[in-house]
Amino acid sequence: MTGTPPATPAPRPSPTDSPNPWVADHIRRFEETGGVPRPGIRDLLLTTRGRRSGVLRRTALAYVPDGEAADGEAADAAYVLTASNAGAGHHPAWYLNLRADPAVTLQVGAETFPALARPASPAETERLWPLVVTAMPSYAAYRDAAARTAGRDIPLVLVTCTGTRTDD
User: Fold this and answer.
1) SS3 of 17, please?
2) Which site in 29, 142, 156, 168 is 20 to 30 Å from 90, CA atoms measured?
3) Is 166 exposed, middle or buried (CB count within 10 Å of its CB: 0-12, 13-18, 19+)?
4) Could you write out the DSSP letters of every residue in 39-91?
5) pLDDT band for position 164 (50/70/90)?
6) Is residue 40 within 8 Å of residue 67, measured between CB atoms?
7) Half-sphere exposure in the Cβ direction for 68 (13 Å, CA)
């Protein structure tokens, strides 16, 4: 038999992890445990494409589900992310990246899937901030600090699954 051998799928490029040592350690722990979140916090890994470099960038974030199912897990609802940057006067790089390219990848637990990210509307933000602060009370202080030092509003981001979920 002659012909061209079947094409081998190209390997997925590995993302570059956050340069922040605490976040990089958190990503390693998340991967080593198969996506087990920190106690009392819902965690995920977000991969964006660098807006200038085009390099895949990964960070670990807490999230709140919007539209919680009866069992407490996010059904087909959005994952709500908070671009707090710990109250700094500028947005985090991951937020700027997804504004430039909203196609992202999420890993929630052991599942990895393509998703689409968008900033929450003002009405959504007003509705969601109480949920975010209930889940992570430190976000209230971050919001105050960002507004006080830089006049910055902390955006909320809604991320929804757009494809097949796979276990990594």
Assistant:
1) strand
2) 29
3) exposed
4) TT--EEEEEEE-TTT--EEEEEEE-EEEEE-TTSSEEEEEEEEE--GGG-SS-
5) confident
6) no
7) 10
Concatenate the DSSP letters of all residues of 132-146 into one string.
HHHH-THHHHHHHHH
The two structure tokens encoding residue 97: 């990246």
| Residues 71/80, Cβ–Cβ less than 8 Å | no
Q: Which position has the higher pLDDT, 156 or 41?
A: 156
Q: What is the Cα–Cα distance from 97 to 109, expressed in whole angstroms?
A: 23
Separation between Cα atoms, residue 68 and residue 41, nearest integer Å: 15
In the block, residue with structure tokens 């965690």: 43
Arithmetic mean of pLDDT, 110-138 = 95
- Taking the C-alpha atoms of residue 120 and residue 100, their distance in angstroms, rounded to an integer, is 15
pTM: 0.84
Q: Give the tokens for residue 66.
A: 């919007």
The owner of tokens 């079947």 is 6
Average pLDDT, the chain: 87
